[in-house]
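User: Structure please.
Assistant: Input sequence and predicted structure:
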Amino acid sequence: MILPPPHNRGWLLPSVIVVLVLIAGGLGGIWAALIVLAVGFAGTTVFHLAHLYILQRWAASSLEHYTALPEGVGVWSDVLAALLRREQKRVAFQTAQRQTIEQFRRMAEALPDGVIVLDGRRHIEWANLRAQQWLALNLEKDRGQPLGNLVRMPEFLRFLADDLDEAPSGDEAAQRTLIIPSVFDTGKTLALQQVPFGRGGRLLLARDVTQYEAAARLRRDFIASVSHELKTPLTVIVGFLETLQETAVADMSEQTRTHYFELMRTQANSMQRLVDDLLTLSALESGAREKEEEWFAVAPLLETLQQQTQALSQGKHTVTLTLPAGETQIYGVRDELTSAFNNLLTNAVRYTPEGGKIELSWTVDNEGRGIFTVCDTGIGIAAEHLPRLTERFYRVDRGRSRASGGTGLGLAIVKHVLLRHQGELAIDSRVSKGSTFSAILPTARVKEQEESAGMEP
């Protein structure tokens, strides 16, 4: 049997009934036609009601049953099939939307920044895990809550109240950033920025800027320290120059003039040492090397340093040197390691009272590491100061350190030199007992005399 096209099937049943009514009327008269018409109408009604029931049951079923085509007859087969196709398209579209939303959520979770989605009333719609951790939020409990009620900081509330429609754009908008401490982690600093999102909503972005803030703080402290270190000798020099300007040089005694010029020379030398140490430290931190690394013998270097230390001490200390029986060579930049070792010795002289002992030694441990040790019987250092000794301009006693001629950069230089040579600095000190500083070089940079020369680590 050939069925008519789907858009014509709706006329098939009424057409059959009309034909039957005409035949019944021609054979049995008007009553027969009416009976056939009534039976046809009733049958049609039952037919459509039955299919409406099938449609109702199908529409009320769960989504997974949409893939099964409900059975229908005639035009209802086409209607149910069309509804099924439309529903399948809708389900596929919703599934694709859910997958897209889930993908964006996974992307937001993978971001190194915190992300919070707010509606027009600043209520929380969604937040990634990092934002929840940094701002002490719980999305399950706090969804729909005003963010300002959960993060109670006056500056944050003012920041959140900004009208983004009136906010500047471009570079000016990027500058509108709030720096606050993390609610969850007191050691973390966050930079917050908000941008319009959706219909009247906004996107709040949080970034961890702890390291940047620490670097900026160190830079500020460094500039302040350098300014302070230079201010003292400059004040002395300017003061004496003003005195010399106001007083005739001829009226001064030779002793007074010599004293003034000696003090100015001392302060100028102090500034010169500070500038030299700053340049050295800057070169070390930049990673640039003015000279190539090479193998060189340790013993001649340490013997020279011992003589220089004795000259610096001017006979006030006993300076001894202990070397192993065999010759040892180390690989590195000779001038840099000389500067590091010399700084350790200079500190020992400065902070060891007259009559004290300073012992230099070089050893190679069981692991093959080279260890240069400076041990003194000086004033010693309290344990709480040891972790910060290698910071720039850090001093245990500022007045005493400055009086001894130190710049506050010596141990910082030592640390950076050793880091460039993959080494480390070990410090052991006790108040009034003395200190021991050990510069440790890795095995790859140390070799005994009998080993073949020319090999590089």
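Confidence is low (pLDDT under 50) at residues 170-175, 451-457.
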